[in-house]
Fold this protein.
Amino acid sequence: MALERLLKGFADFRLGYYREHLDLFDKLATEGQSPRILFIGCSDARVDPGILTQTKPGDIFTVRNVAALVPPAQPDGRHHGTSAAIEFAVRGLSVEHIVVLGHALCGGIAALVDGDKNDAYAHYDYLATWMRVARDVRDVVVDGMAGRPRDEVARAVEQASVLCSVKNLMTFPWLAEKVAAGTLVLHAWWFNLTEGQLYAFDPAIARFAPVSGVSLEGAVTARTQLSDLSAERFIAAAGRKPDF
Ligand SMILES: [Zn+2]
């Protein structure tokens, strides 16, 4: 049944969207892709960057993984799928923006928040190692929000892990060079699917706020400091006004 729905969906796409965008597909086929934006999102089935932003084929280059994490640069000859996609987007396609998109109710982050006590990863081969990318940030947030409701803590870890991923982007030297040169801007976004609202991190206030109300200048530009993204600063801001 699930697969039949996919085939029906493709038939509809072919007769509808594809026909309506024949010129676009023809252009993309003959000229290749030249997206200006790299999206790094979660594999979660509920959070599709293309649907959320209503973009067209060719508009965004996308990599999705568990919890939308970016590991630090580690050129050790092993298989780094996320880093390879980032490298191609930055060095091959010369994207001008990178958006890391976290989201509410993220199962990967929930396992990170609850994992130690539930042994959530015990029967998996790869998840625990992967989620280690955000473990230090989790520790800072959990310590800093001791006594606060678990859902608030989970949400803060979701958002702080996006900041962690943005900071880790800057460990790739060819990426940091472009940010310093002003040709690449990094953005930290978080989508709340229960209210249908998109939030962006504003370094000036160290908080995520609805995109309609914040500067979209970016979380990291040639003018910003990486310390602006620290989990400690984020938690200090969250502690002052715990309504994220
Ligand atoms: Zn997720």
The chain has eleven helices and six strands. The radius of gyration is 19 Å.
